[in-house]
Amino acid sequence: SLWSVTDCNFYEYVSDGMIVDNLNNGDSGDSSIVGCVFTAPSTTGNGVRQISSGGLKLTGNKFNNGGTGYLLDLSDNADTGVLVISGNSFENASFANIQLQRQAATTKIFTSVVISGNEFLVSGATASAIYSNNGSDFLYNVAITGNTIQLSAVGQAGILLNYVERYIVSGNEITGFSGGTGIFIGANGSG
Fold it and tell me: pLDDT of 100-132, one tens digit each?
């Protein structure tokens, strides 16, 4: 709990550049990752993979390549929440720059997500800037505002939200989506 990682470089990871997982108390955290660079050598791996721990802030980081820049992969450890992703640059992820999900058979929920003021370049053939999908509602109180998203190929998406309760998507600039999707609000969501 209550840690910071600042101005570090994570290169050549194949699985995860950093894992956030509080095994003592799955809701405890209030941690930050600031000014770091995450660069995978290929189209696999996650820059930051969060399994548990609340109150994580990602600010001013650079994510390049890999499968996913930031992955919320919520475990069955505890209900938790508070995620702030602001002022980062996400580019060239093959699947999603930000992916929000929970692990199979998990019933826990995650509340209070703010994704604001980030820059995204979507480059994977069917990739998304921000992607949420799960078999049932698990994300609550999500705000996605003021981001700049550049799509570069047919079949890509800017923001795909499934199974999210109480959200706002506002003031995002999404360009280059001829043949793609700017914003898709899908299954079981309510704004």
Answer: 999 988 889 999 999 999 999 998 888 999 999
Four-point Cα dihedral 107, 70, 165, 109, nearest 10: 20
> What is the rounded CA–CA span in Å between residue 53 and residue 63?
21
**pLDDT tens-digit map of 160-187:** 998 899 999 999 999 986 788 999 988 7
Evaluate whether 103 touches 133 at the Cβ level (below 8 Å): no
What are 122's two structure tokens?
A: 């979507």
CA dihedral 98, 142, 61, 58 (to 10 degrees): -120
**13 or 134: which leads in pLDDT:** 13
Q: In whole angstroms, what is the distance from residue 69 CA to residue 103 CA?
A: 17
Return the structure tokens found at 89.
Answer: 């640059």
* Opening angle at CA 78, ends 107 and 165, nearest 5: 55
Secondary-structure breakdown of the chain: helix, strand, coil percentages, each rounded to the nearest 5: 0, 55, 45
Q: Which two tokens stand for residue 125?
A: 């053939």
Overall size of the chain counted in residues: 191
The model's pTM is 0.95
For 57, residues 6+ apart whose C-beta sits below 8 A from its C-beta are 31, 32, 33, 34, 83, 84, 85, 86
Q: Per the structure block, which two tokens stand in for 94?
A: 């093959």
